[in-house]
Amino acid sequence: MFDKILIANRGEIACRVIKTARKMGIKTVAIYSDADKHALHVEMADEAVHIGPPPANQSYIVIDKVMEAIRKSGAQAVHPGYGFLSENPKFAQALEAEGVAFVGPPVKAIEAMGDKITSKKIAQEAGVNTVPGYMGLIADADEAVKISNEVGYPVMIKASAGGGGKGMRIAWDDEEAREGFQSSKNEAANSFGDDRIFIEKFVTQPRHIEIQVLCDGHGNGIYLNERECSIQRRNQKVVEEAPSPFLDEATRKAMGEQSVALAKAVGYASAGTVEFIVDGDRNFYFLEMNTRLQVEHPVTELITGVDLVEQMIRVANGEPLSITQDDVKINGWAIENRLYAEDPYRGFLPSIGRLTRYRPPAEGALGDGIVRNDTGVFEGGEISMYYDPMIAKLCTWAPTRAEAIETMRNALDSFEVEGIGHNLPFVAAVMDHPKFISGEMTTAFIAEEYPDGFEGVTLDEDALKRVAAACAAMNRVAEIRRARISGTLDNHERRVGEDWNVTLQGESFDVTIAADHDGSTVRFADDTELRISGDWTPGDQLARMSVDDTPLVMKVGKVSGGFRIRTRGADLKVHVRTPRQAELARMMPEKVAADTSKLLLCPMPGLIVKVNVTEGDEVQEGQALCTVEAMKMENILRAERKGTVSKINAAAGDSLAVDDVIMEFE
Q1: Residue 251 has what pLDDT?
Q2: Could you tell me how many helices (H) and strands (E) the chain has, helices first?
Q3: Quick one: which of 586, 609, 633, 13 has its CA closest to 625?
Q4: Cα separation of 579 and 587, whole Å?
Q5: Residue 397 pLDDT more than 90?
Q6: What whole-number distance in Å separates Cα of residue 292 and Cα of residue 490?
Q7: What is the rounded average pLDDT of the residues 264-287?
Q8: What is the signed CA dihedral for 638, 643, 644, 649, rounded to 10 degrees?
Q9: What is the rounded CA–CA span in Å between residue 660 and residue 658?
Q10: Beta bridge partners of 30
Q11: Which residues contact 447 (CB under 8 A, 6 or more apart)?
Q12: Is the peptide bond before 320 cis (omega within 30 degrees of 0)?
């Protein structure tokens, strides 16, 4: 076995590989850029090597710099993680030439599966179901229209070297096929330097389901069941689960056997994933093969008990697989939510900055389930603008899907993140969405259910009453503490009453609290009673309550006269007042939000790349005003209406915070 492995990656996947290597008694080497000097993966590794400036194209994906780090450290093997150099055949070749083991598949397998046209042809020859289409070179738009008619609309026009949604168009008729062909060709040339285009049938109401395969260098190959990855945003997965709530055993077996056949056809050896599109009748079609470890691999590990990173290392060491297909079972259900540094209330724009509070739920048992959190950050650490915005992968396991979802809900409610915008409220909302709960989602789930973006969760009346009752009980505890403060006036005893008014989400509840040693009974005006108990002390930022013996976990902040409560994707201001205070509060005028209609505000922390206008310019609706860069993405800010620029407060090169005023209008 190897004595030392270098991890050619960063963040949570580097930390994940280090954990398994440590368990196997293998020393680890981290690499890091200037931005990652104090990163968690650097701290966890046995040694670390600096490889350059923050931008990945000057550090993590520069093969020569990584090779120098390997020589310096004396590592015998390299695990590439995912992203960066993980599917770069030139990197695998460089390692081979250096006599260093690549913890991944052979170079030929990476090359064969890296090109969409080539991989589809190989899949067809291996007996794998493929989407009907045309794989040859398409000369021009006229030929594209002809082929589209032969395949049958709708069709998907795709770049052969594409990825991440680039060079991809859906066409429903001849005109869209003509336009889509040229747009895809141009985009592919600009993004990948390769303008080859192919056309295939577009599967309506598709589900994205993938098969995990594991092969060794001795001709053995197995599949470790499937993962459901249909909940995506802009072709990026957000929620994954294993197994799929849609597949039956026969379809699972057919998909698994075809995936192993494809892997063997290219001489695959390592962990890999074969991705499929599945229609409503469980017809499945090959999409692509990822020749690396997937982001969502933990859900497979949780239902099979197989450590995929360990198996990859053992295969790279020349060992045969120690498990057969008969050993692979499905034990329970697992769900993964990706926690991103993206603000869902601002159109999921990237959010950077310092994690002033980062308290994930404790790993291990939670109720009837298990919690696992793969992360690469820590409290006080910084989310950099240079890399992927993923902070953590929160996973839960339980005997059934319903229990896994409930465990996930409570884990999300327990996850404390402050200092940056993040998508915790959004994934919490997904966990409560009827379509997700039923398991009847497609890849269009987010686009269909949140067409105007995410604006938070509106709780139903039962959920509001649960929160209101818990807050009333918590407020009573705080009032008792305040009543006992020393230094009060003589003969002025402060009594804590039983009658209160709770307002939240535009609703008002009059309640009466009857407290005893074990908790409180909160009675509403309609005679509904809720029994409240729990663990909360004034000042705690997390309340673990029980409402009629059902858990209620809430993140708690202080606001004047009450609490800021975050639970189940909702962000609530809860005011708890005496009846007289409530009466007076109803007479107060509502505070009107400041008018920002004549201001261009920076929607995220970022760098001004370009300002397109000058003071005095008249601008039209939709006109580009400036470009802001954050997390490797350029965002063009456009005029919402016609107007005249009266003042510009920022210039190219300026670093701005959220809501900084970029320019003003007349």
Answers
A1: 98
A2: 17, 40
A3: 609
A4: 13
A5: yes
A6: 73
A7: 95
A8: -40
A9: 6
A10: 7, 48
A11: none
A12: no
For residue 461, how many C-alpha atoms fall within 13 Å in the half-sphere facing its CB? 6
Kindly list the distances between the CA atom of residue 646 and the CA atoms of 262, 607, 649, 651, 658, in Å, as whole numbers in the listed order.
62, 22, 10, 15, 21
Question: Distance between CA 184 and CA 180 in Å, rounded?
Answer: 6
Q: What is the Cα Rg of the chain in Å?
A: 28
Using DSSP, state whether 581 is helix, strand or coil. Answer: helix
SS3 (DSSP) at 608: strand
Whole-number Å distance between alpha carbons of 36 and 45: 13
Report the C-alpha gap between 467 and 216 in whole angstroms. 53
Of 645, 654, 643, 651, whose CA–CA distance to 611 is shortest? 651
User: Rounded to whole angstroms, how far apart are CA atoms 485 and 513?
Assistant: 22
Tens digits of residue pLDDT in 183-205 = 888 878 876 778 888 898 888 88
| C-alpha to C-alpha distance for 564 and 558, rounded to whole angstroms | 6
Residue 500 has pLDDT above 80, yes or no: yes
**3 state SS of 443:** coil
- The DSSP output letter for 130 is B
Torsion angle (degrees, nearest 10) of CA 147, 151, 157, 161: -90
* Both structure tokens of 366: 């939670």
| pTM (two decimals) | 0.85
Catalytic residue of the set 176, 288, 296, 301: 288
Average pLDDT, the chain: 93
Say how far apart CA 145 and CA 141 lie, in whole Å: 6
Maximum separation of any 2 CA atoms in the chain, in Å? 95
Cα gap 45→73, rounded to integer Å: 12
Provide the phi-psi class of 229: left if phi over 0, else alpha when psi is between -120 and 50, else beta: alpha
Neighbour count for residue 529 (Cβ, 10 Å): 13
Lowest mean pLDDT, pick from 362-366, 379-383, 489-493, 596-600: 489-493
How far is the C-alpha of 205 from the C-alpha of 214, rounded, in Å?
29
**527: nearest Cα among 434, 583, 603, 465:** 465
- Whether the bond into 53 is cis, omega within 30 of 0: no
Between CA 511 and CA 324 the distance in angstroms is: 61
- Which tokens sit at 26? 């293998």
Query: Dihedral angle at the C-alpha atoms of 251, 252, 257, 259, nearest 10 degrees?
Result: 110
Is 455 assigned a catalytic role? no
Token pair for 523 = 């009675």
Structure tokens at 415: 């996850």
Residue 427 binned pLDDT confidence (cut-offs 50, 70, 90): very high
475 closest CA partner among 425, 536, 412, 423: 536
